[in-house]
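agent> Task received from the user: take the single chain below, predict its 3D structure, and emit structure tokens. No templates, no multimer pairing.
agent> Plan: (1) validate residues, (2) run structure prediction, (3) serialize to tokens, (4) report one or two observations.
agent> Step 1 OK, no nonstandard residues flagged.
tool_call: predict_structure(input=
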Amino acid sequence: MTTIESKHGIVSRQPHELYMSFTDLQNFKAMLPEDKKDMIEATFDTLQATVQGFNIGVKVHERVPYSRIELVDYGAPFAFHIVLHFDPAAEDPYKTDFHIKVEADLNLMMKMMLSGKVKEALDKVVDGLVDASNGKMPEGFDPKQWMK
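)
tool_result: status=success, residues=148
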């Protein structure tokens, strides 16, 4: 198994607030631009997409209220496990230390091709979440659709 971890980011939301926005996987579809939404199928527990001709999906494996959500592959071409961590920030209990850990069953070639890109994407998710929680919104992003 290959393990890839994102950077840690301090999100200006309490862990329970941030956790609740991630519990329903349909919220991810709401965050996408309109022209990308038809590529995604989402339910409360599952999310499936077609990316560069590959069908890939995740389903919730476990929810640990306010601290962790675990996702596993669901119709993906390889096995993987994703853990979203929502820890109280050490310096401020009203903020969340958020990070993502991915474990994937990748062969050597896939590991060399994907590890860096996955790490970069995970870090962008963390950075985007930190920025959004501080009022800096990416273009075309509507926080009302997911940060309730």
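agent> Step 4: summary for the user.
The helical segments are 15-23, 26-30, 108-133.
agent> Done.
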